[in-house]
Design goal:
The protein has six helices and 24 strands. By secondary structure, the protein is α+β, with helices and mostly antiparallel strands. It has three domains: 32-124, Beta Barrel (Lipocalin); 134-239, Lipocalin, CATH 2.40.128; 260-373. The chain is globular, with a radius of gyration of 30 Å.
Length: 374
C-alpha cells in the first residue's frame, strides 16, 4: 500500500515538473503581441548604407497602424501604398512579402531593416506647430537666412535653395519644398545646379520654427540628429558667387562597378587629339630631367553639366610603384588638366546626364610627355 502511494506521488511530481517545463518554454518564446507595439507608429526614412560608412538618402515614410494597416510613401510620390502587416512566427509579413525578424532591429527610436545594405529609419512624433501650415512655414523660411556653425541657408521664393558651406568659398544650388504628412511637416531638399529633377537629399522633419530659430531632425553623417539654425541677416556678399565645382548628385557612389559597366563615360570634344595639342602648346619640359621618368595619373569628376573638378594626382614609376616627380612637372600637368572643361557628360542607361569619374594618364620620360591616354 505504501509503495502504491509513493508511485502516485512520484507521478504527480513528474507531471508538475512537466507542466513547469512547458510553461518555461512558452514564456521564452516572445508572443507577437509584445513585439507589435514597438513597431507601431511613423518612421522617417533616413539612410541606405550602400557601402561601409557610405550612406545615401532613403526618402521614404513608413507607418504601422495598430489595426494592421501598413503604408509607405516615397517623398516624390503623391500617394502612399497601403497594405496589411502582421508578425507571424519569426517574420514580419507585409502583403505577400515575408521579412525574417533577424534582419529587422526595432529600437525605441530607430528601426534598422536589412542585413546587407541596411536601411535606417527614425521614429518620429507629432510636433505642435500651432497655427502653421506649409505656406506659413515656407514664408518663415524665406524671411531670413538661417545659420549654424557649419552652414548658411537661403530659401528663395522660386523654390531655389542656396547652401553656403563655411569651410569653402561660394554656395551650392538646390531646390526645396515644404510638405505635410499626416501631422508632420517635412523639409525636402532635392535637385542640383541644373534642374530640380535630381534625387532628394536626406529628409528632414521640421521640429520647430519661428522668426528666430529653426530646428530639424535628419540623418547627419552616420546617425539621426537634431540640427538647429538661428535667423541671420541677409547679406548679398554671402551668396554672390557659386562654388567653382558642384557635383550634381553629392551622394552617388562613383566607385560603384555599375557606373563603370552600364554607364557611358564623359567625352572631351576632339578627344585625345585635342588634349594632346593642348599639352604640346602649354607644357614646358624641364632641362636636365633624366630621372623624371614614369607615369602621372590625374583623376577627376565630370559632373552632369560637363564641368570638371575634384582633381587628384597619383605619381608612379615604370614598375607602378609610387614615386615623387619634380613638383614643377606634376604641378604643370595638374594645372593644364584643370583647364579641360566643357566635357560631354556621362549618361546612364536611361540617357540622363550624371556625374562620373574620368582618368588621364601621362607617360613621362626624362621630364617630357611622350604619351597621353585615358
Amino acid at each position: 500500500m505504501t509503495a502504491i502511494k509513493t508511485s502516485q506521488s512520484m507521478k504527480r511530481h513528474l507531471f508538475c515538473c512537466f507542466l513547469c517545463f512547458l510553461t518555461s518554454c512558452y514564456r521564452t518564446e516572445t508572443p507577437a503581441t509584445t513585439i507589435t507595439p514597438t513597431i507601431e507608429g511613423t518612421w522617417l526614412g533616413g539612410a541606405y548604407e550602400l557601402d561601409r560608412d557610405v550612406y545615401v538618402p532613403f526618402p521614404k515614410i513608413l507607418h504601422f497602424s495598430a489595426d494592421g494597416t501598413y503604408s509607405e510613401r516615397w517623398i516624390d510620390k503623391e500617394k502612399a501604398d497601403t497594405f496589411q502587416w502582421a508578425f507571424q512566427k519569426d517574420s514580419l509579413h507585409i502583403d505577400t512579402f515575408h521579412f525574417p525578424m533577424d534582419e529587422i532591429k526595432i529600437g525605441a527610436e530607430q528601426l534598422n531593416w536589412g542585413r546587407r545594405y541596411t536601411r535606417s529609419y527614425q521614429r518620429i512624433q507629432p510636433r505642435q506647430l500651432d497655427g502653421l501650415d506649409t505656406t506659413k512655414i515656407d514664408l518663415l523660411l524665406q524671411k531670413t537666412d538661417w545659420e549654424n556653425k557649419t552652414e548658411k541657408l537661403r530659401f528663395q521664393a522660386d523654390g531655389g535653395l542656396r547652401v553656403m558651406n563655411k569651410t569653402q568659398e561660394g554656395y551650392a544650388t538646390y531646390c526645396y519644398k515644404v510638405e505635410s504628412f499626416e501631422s508632420y511637416f517635412l523639409l525636402v531638399k532635392y535637385g542640383n545646379q541644373t534642374d530640380c529633377h535630381a534625387p532628394c537629399q536626406f529628409l528632414e522633419q521640421i521640429i520647430s520654427i519661428d522668426r528666430k530659430t529653426l530646428k530639424v531632425l535628419r540623418w547627419e553623417k552616420d546617425r539621426f540628429q537634431e540640427v538647429s539654425y538661428k535667423a541671420s541677416a541677409n547679406k548679398k556678399s554671402d551668396f554672390s558667387m557659386p562654388v567653382e565645382f558642384q557635383r550634381c548628385d553629392q551622394y552617388k557612389l562613383l566607385n560603384n562597378p555599375q557606373n563603370r559597366y552600364y554607364n557611358k563615360g564623359p567625352r572631351y570634344p576632339g578627344g585625345l587629339y585635342s588634349i594632346n595639342n593642348l599639352f604640346k602648346d602649354k607644357y614646358k619640359p624641364l632641362r636636365n630631367a633624366r630621372r623624371q621618368t614614369g607615369l602621372i595619373r590625374i583623376r577627376f569628376v565630370v559632373n552632369c553639366a560637363g564641368e570638371a573638378g575634384l582633381f587628384e594626382t597619383l605619381e608612379l614609376d615604370n614598375n607602378y610603384q609610387e614615386k615623387k616627380f619634380d613638383q614643377r612637372i606634376s604641378d604643370q600637368i595638374l594645372e593644364i588638366s584643370k583647364t579641360l572643361q566643357s566635357w560631354i557628360p556621362a549618361t546612364n542607361r536611361e540617357g540622363k546626364n550624371i556625374d562620373h569619374f574620368k582618368y588621364l594618364t601621362f607617360k613621362i620620360k626624362d621630364g617630357k610627355i611622350i604619351e597621353i591616354f585615358f
